[in-house]
Amino acid sequence: MDTIRAQRILAIDVGSVRVGLALSDELLLTAQPLDVLPRRPQKKLIQQIKEIVKKNNVGTVVVGLPLNLKGEETLSTTDARQFAERLKRNLPDVQIILWDERMTTSASESLL
Q: In whole angstroms, what is the distance from residue 9 CA to residue 38 CA?
């Protein structure tokens, strides 16, 4: 008998030099750091993410959207949006979500 597995969530923090990855557990209760990959070459990075998605049964990718504290877009915001669009083109069967990451570090630290 086949087992039913929930599709996991992959979170991506896009930096100018490196890209941080975190992966949810199968119950979607927690996420753990997975890897830090070099941003360049872009084609290799996208391929590595595609392999991680396939290997880990990922159904949703969440890309951090770095807005400033006033909620305004910056150059980093534009970069994250463009990266998310590349993922959408390369992972057509995966839901790609942009997530406002303002205050997430503060929230995480207060939970700890």
A: 21
